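Worked problem 6 (solution included).
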Amino acid sequence: MAVPLAEGRQAPVVRTHALRKAFGGLVAVQGLDLTIARGEVFGLLGPNGSGKTTTIRMLCGLVVPTSGTAEVAGFDITTEAESVRRRIGYMSQRYGLYDELTVRENLRFYASVYGLVGRERDARLAAHIERLGLGGRVSQRAGTLSGGWKQRLALACATAHHPDLVFLDEPTAGVDPAARRTFWETIYELAGDGTTVLVTTHYMDEAERCQRLAFLSRGQLIGLGTPAEVVQQFGATTVEDVFVMLQRKDEQEAALGIGTTAVAAR
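Solution. The predicted structure is:
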């Protein structure tokens, strides 16, 4: 169950207006309007090919939009992309740790990549290690960790520099249920400290843990709100029903070669 947004955390960390990206004749994202608050746990959902990855790459400053505007942590993603990248963290579903390095060495390396050095880095990492429960494993090689501990270390590496926004792309794929629960407890601790968390996931029980959801379909935003509000918008029973409905619709329209008609999203 999602935790309601806390009072006083409404200042937007992400703001997009009419954001659009086309690759030749293929429109990957069309007219995206989003506002995501500081400290919010926000889910970006949709079937494969819906535009999630392109949206994230634009918000990371890695892909230049065709038109429209977007700001992340107050910086324009097109003209201030380097400043954007210094204020975000990214955790991919693909394993990105260095097996031969210890937990501490991985953390030191990623903290340095994000610009933390010297005493500031050491102080930040000491607090981070304690908070994420990694203290007993700092000398263990990353390659010997279980799946759940690897995910926790990957999250620690992505947030070592205390980013304004962290992207979690299918973060718990292949992780057992107990580790997934612990992982989500950590996500809410980070959000409680003001870090905005943007999650993509195909686990609908995890989607329901997000405070708000945005559903994309063939590049367009077609549902926006709390999990309960999105379910109501589509006349469905659960978030999973919405996802299945969209996937079937996208597959049918793709087979027929027709475009997507967006429904009003609140």
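Discussion: Confidence is low (pLDDT under 50) at residues 260-266.
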